[in-house]
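Standup notes, structure subgroup. Blocker cleared on the 3VV input:
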Amino acid sequence: MLLCACASAPVQQVSPRLFSSAPRDYSLPNDSWSAEMRRLYDQYDQEPGGGGRWKRLPSYNRFLKYATAGGQCLSRLVQSRARLFTRNIKEPGAAFEYAIFINEEEKRAVCVFQAGHLLEGPPGHVHGGAIATIIDNVTGACATYISGFVLTANLNINYCSPISLGSVVLVDCAVDRVEGRKTWVSCRITSADGSKLHTEATGLFVSVGVSHLFTG
Ligand SMILES: CCCCCCCC/C=C\CCCCCCCC(=O)SCCNC(=O)CCNC(=O)[C@H](O)C(C)(C)COP(=O)(O)OP(=O)(O)OC[C@H]1O[C@@H](n2cnc3c(N)ncnc32)[C@H](O)[C@@H]1OP(=O)(O)O
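Run returned:
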């Protein structure tokens, strides 16, 4: 929403976010979420301190901590405008709506994912690249949580059945093995009730120091 300084124009309400330095947490429910999405979110969400098995990961549109740490590869302008791929569309519900929950004890991550209309591939269905993106993101978060900072070295995907645009699916990942710098993660995307398998994937993640990003 815009702040209008012109006296003759109608006064518009100013979003408090304009004056707030608190970043938006995209993993919290918004009005674009379907009842199914909200139901699944509530199923995994736990009260803080409630001792539940699942912990929701907050999700921002950039990695604040590292945003200004680089500068060797990217100009300051590019760096300051960089946004996390899955969170770079502001319109709620248009693209990737998701929340990731981590179960540290079981080394598992579950993501409730609602695919918006900008993710179309085959008519009415989600683009394979968008599916790969959410898999990379959730398996990557799972590996990061267990092994620290990692990069994806290998991702294998079997697309078993198409995912309808607007539908809500579950992305369920588990760390299978950690060996030295290597972390293997497997992943399944199913319908919300688990009855239909959409996608199966495996990923290999390699632990790196953050400096790897700037030295190649
Ligand atoms: C801590 C708290 C955490 C809190 C929770 C956090 C939540 C986080 C939330 C949200 C996360 C969002 C997550 C986003 C996720 C997105 C991830 C991406 O998209 S990453 C971008 C795409 N990937 C690249 O651009 C990599 C490019 N590749 C490389 O940089 C290098 O190739 C790299 C680092 C992968 C490996 O290079 P080397 O030089 O460091 O190491 P070498 O010696 O080559 O490999 C190490 C071992 O891995 C094997 N290896 C490497 N690549 C392999 C491959 N493709 N297939 C099989 N093995 C491979 C090698 O054979 C070697 O194994 P041997 O140690 O000898 O046993």
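Discussed briefly. Confidence is low (pLDDT under 50) at residues 1-17.
Next: hand off to the docking folks.
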